[in-house]
Amino acid sequence: MNIKELIKKWYIPPIKQYADFKSRTGKKAYWMFILFNFIFAWIAFGFDNIFGTHNVGFWGITNGSFNNFYSLILLVPGLAIAVRRLHDVGEEGSKLIYIFIPIIGWIILLKLLIQEGDPVENKFGPAPSEDPADPDIGSHPYTPNEGQPEEKFDVSVIRKQAEETIAKKEKTEKKKIASKAQKIKWGRDRGAIDFRTPPNKDGSRKS
User: What sign does the CA torsion over 11, 16, 20, 23 have?
Assistant: First the structure.
């Protein structure tokens, strides 16, 4: 998978979900987004150095126009995906306020963000897909998930399985009919009257 496909898979979907503060985002999806966000932030920082638009910001940290513009664009998507990550571990998004508590708050928040999410549905919704670009992947039994052999989803294989199921059912029905016929024969051999047959002319029935 090339860098373009990775960006399309892990970086673009969270940006499109900028307004989603209710659902959940998995651990891998969150940190892949953070990774690309960090890379692009450094690219913006590089442009500031090239064009001389950098300056010294808070706590002596060098910043610049390109970096500030990029950070402004990613502010809401970044907050949204962080809230969804907290939802994934069963925590309220309001715990993002820990970021304003130096050291201790950062450690607590980092611990929550690297924690494995709930494997089942929680109060914030169902467990998220591992592939953010395809949230419905795996919802159908014949959907080819990543890493599964294509042969499993071959139409000919599915047809063969259906034919085998039908043949097995027909074989079972034949056994039931044969068993029933055997019981009727067993009764006739012992003199039982078969009331399903029409009577003889003298009113008697065939034994």
Answer: negative
